[in-house]
């Protein structure tokens, strides 16, 4: 079987952590990425969930929620009731 070189760029700290993990698992990074490639191509998908974070928990929304709670706690809110349709 012919082999091909693949170059991957990543943060140096992430690389060091990955090398340590691979070493602890008794393999090198080439073996780890080969396992990933075989699993991904065998399943025809990324073999783990890849998603964007829920925007509700973004720092800006959490800041808005804290500000709104502070305003309510200070008596600056307006009470509203649900209207039945």
UniProtKB/TrEMBL annotation:
GO terms of biological process kind: regulation of DNA-templated transcription
Pfam families: RelB
Identification of the protein by name: Addiction module antitoxin, RelB/DinJ family
